[in-house]
Amino acid sequence: MVRVEYKLDGKEYEEDIIGAKESLKIPVRGMLQTFTNDNWSLSFLTAMRAEKGKLDASSKAFRTMLSSIKLDEKWFNRYVQIVGLLIKAQMQSIHAAGELSKLLAQTSDEISAERSKLYQGSQDSYDRVSETFGDYMRDIDRYKDADGSVVELPSGYKNAWVNGLGDYVVSDTLDYNPNIGSNQHWQELQRK
User: Fold this and answer.
1) How far is CA 53 from CA 16, 49, 58, 64, 161, in A?
2) End-to-end CA distance of the chain
3) Tens of pLDDT along 90-128?
4) Are 152 and 106 in contact (CB under 8 A)?
5) Cβ contacts of residue 176 below 8 Å, gap of 6+?
6) Domain range annotation of the chain
7) What are phi and psi of 187, to 5 degrees?
8) Bridge partner residues of 20 (DSSP)
9) Predicted confidence (pLDDT) at residue 69 exceeds the cutoff of 80
10) Angle formed at CA 77 by CA 74 and CA 78, multiple of 5 degrees
11) Average pLDDT estimate for 38-49
């Protein structure tokens, strides 16, 4: 994420630009050796703009819009197929059409698996970006409870504890232990 400030039509603006880098490696067999085309791009590019001083106040609405984005798998597979066709056209200018057809026939299962892997990786990346950005904007940290559930608590503390009643305690002191002098059993939470 990058925040920029600028003037447009005499007004001052702030804008947050958020994105993720994606890479697709495609093996290409040449006449003498195999080499790899590494195609990368910036995706999930999002920008949020408001008049200077108003961007942070608008972040909740922007965060809602950002977290509601869901990539359609059918559309994404068609997109990847089109990109693959463009790459194929480049390779045909280098290699004979027969050699390329043979390579594609041998690797079609691998390409399909890579597409699914790329799609899932993109979804995971989008989820992480959205969750991290949302946590930052909401000023929270996530902790894992003993039963594996995730708990959201205010950020900026060094440790957090929970008791059997579901009460939580956060502390800035590393050696703080709420079990000392308490009749409750407190268990330390692990940061997610």
Assistant:
1) 13, 11, 10, 20, 37
2) 21
3) 877 776 667 767 767 777 777 777 778 888 888 888 888
4) no
5) 159
6) 2-138, 141-191
7) -115, 130
8) 43
9) no
10) 90
11) 85
